[in-house]
Design brief:
heterodimer, A: mainly alpha, Cytochrome Bc1 Complex, Chain D, domain 2, three-stranded mixed β-sheet, two-stranded antiparallel sheet, 11 helices, 45% helix, B: mainly alpha, 2 domains, 9 helices
């Protein structure tokens, strides 16, 4: 069973190569085997993320435990399932990663440079952001996704995200909808989910962040959107920018109601 | 009084309980002002990196029209633009058929044009990402139509050569809102590479036509 899974993963990897950075399939496969043997990789990362949440850091030497993720300072239970949402203290809509960044620079007084210097990790070591994200998201398991939809700014974010999803630009004239707009289409052998419809996106928003076997890494939604824009031949989206949060808001509202089932393991 | 109330509600902290449902599952109608907003937002929230410059966020007349009309502009909008684009394609003199073997490698490669690609690497055409071509390559995408036997079906007349070269150079000349990237226009592929791909599609010896 594991073997078929592995074979599938390797095949899928090979098919993904034209779009994704080249990786050594054998090396990644071994890494994956090892991690599976040790238990679900995402769960291991949750433990590390919890330690980082509690770790005193920054000029004020405080932990993130006082961070308000929307359910009150320090409340992590069910917080992820209720994001993105509007935060009055920042006067904007935030997703998990943007909110964590906010707490690092306010609560912990870390400089934006310090907090953003390593947003995306690699196969050897996940980033602080990735580890924190899987820990927080894991505290929402089983909770139906219910992003904010009543505040004007939450509604505006949805509408902006919806428009951005269909907006064609970049060197190759792509929008998200170019690849995620029609059912049963594929790039090489990868089937592309339709994300403008609830049926297509519900399971997706309920499984990020995720451990990606093909990258041998744990990744967040900010990364997923960033990497799709890379493949779209656009310039680089700014981490936590209004545009990226608006897209997450759009996808999450479209897929709302699905019980959170991550952080999981994806191909 | 009502006006004040509305203004308040507008800036407002909570649209209590009675907010209309959000248009989930719909495709938004885009007005010219929305388009201006989207360009401004993308210029604010994206940054140039490597070879991917901010100029990529500018919309030319074709992409403006497609974005404004949900990729389905009325004929009176698309036709003059298509004609104009067709005239702008720099068709080379002489034969448009290059080397199909080199074309095959270009069709296979999806490399190039992203911010993580180094400048001056050899770009591919990503054709297999979207099209079926030769029967030997089973890993092909379906965003585009099948091009299997393209030359066998269409022949190799001068007109077909021109159409094939032109389609790869700038797909929008024949179908304004085509989802196919403008490979020559975007400087992804050069003249020789497009000739090689034209041969790959049309040459009777190419596996595409076997």
């Amino acid at each position: 069973m594991l073997k078929t899974l592995m074979g599938g993963a390797a095949l899928a990897l090979a098919a993904a190569l034209p779009l994704h950075a080249q990786v050594d399939i054998r090396k990644e496969t071994q890494r994956w085997q090892q991690m599976i043997a040790e238990g679900s990789p995402a769960e291991l990362f949750e433990i590390e993320g919890e330690a980082l949440w509690k770790k005193k850091q920054g000029p004020k030497n405080v932990s993130l435990e006082g961070c308000d993720l929307g359910q009150g300072p320090g409340v992590v239970k069910a917080a992820y399932a209720q994001l993105p949402k509007y935060f009055a203290d920042a006067d904007r809509v935030m997703d998990l990663e943007t909110r964590l960044l906010h707490c690092m620079t306010t609560l912990q007084s870390r400089s934006p440079q310090d907090a953003t210097q390593r947003l995306y990790g690699n196969a050897d070591r996940p980033s602080e952001m990735e580890l924190l994200s899987v820990y927080i998201a894991g505290q929402s398991r089983g909770v139906p996704m219910a992003p904010g939809t009543r505040h004007v700014k939450e509604r505006e974010a949805f509408e902006l995200g919806q428009k951005l999803f269909f907006h064609r630009a970049g060197a190759w004239d792509f929008s998200c909808s170019s690849c995620h707009g029609e059912a049963d289409k594929r790039i090489r052998m990868q089937y592309l989910p339709v994300m403008s419809q609830p049926e297509g996106v519900r399971k997706i928003v309920a499984t990020w962040p995720s451990y990606l076997v093909r990258n041998a890494q744990v990744k967040t939604m900010q990364w997923r959107i960033w990497d799709c824009y890379r493949q779209m031949r656009w310039p680089e989206p700014v981490f936590g920018s209004e545009a990226t949060v608006a897209i997450t808001q759009y996808l999450t509202v479209t897929g709302q109601g699905e019980p959170y089932a991550g952080p999981g393991t994806k191909r | 009084m009502t006006k004040n109330f509305l203004l308040l509600a507008g800036t407002a902290v909570l649209v209590a309980g009675c907010a209309a449902p959000l248009p989930v599952g719909e495709r938004p109608k885009i007005a010219a002002s929305d388009l201006d907003q989207l360009v401004a937002v993308s210029k604010r929230d994206f940054k140039a990196r490597g070879i991917a410059g901010m100029d990529r966020l500018e919309l030319d007349a074709a992409m403006r029209a497609c974005n404004l009309h949900n990729d389905n502009p009325p004929r009176e909008v698309s036709q003059p633009l298509e004609e104009q684009i067709l005239k702008s394609i720099p068709f080379p003199q002489g034969s448009l058929l290059g080397d199909w073997k080199r074309g095959q490698r270009l069709a296979q490669s999806g490399q190039g044009m992203t911010w993580s690609d180094k400048p001056n690497i050899a770009n591919g055409g990503s054709c297999y990402n979207c099209h079926q071509l030769s029967p030997q390559e089973e890993s092909f995408g379906t965003l585009g139509t099948s091009l299997r036997n393209f030359g066998k079906i269409r022949g190799t007349s001068e007109a077909i050569q021109r159409y094939t070269y032109g389609k790869i150079y700038n797909s929008k000349a024949y179908n304004l809102c085509s989802q196919m990237p403008r490979m020559g226009h975007s400087k992804t592929l050069n003249e020789q590479q497009i000739k090689d791909l034209t041969a790959y599609l049309l040459d009777p010896n190419s596996p595409v036509n076997k």
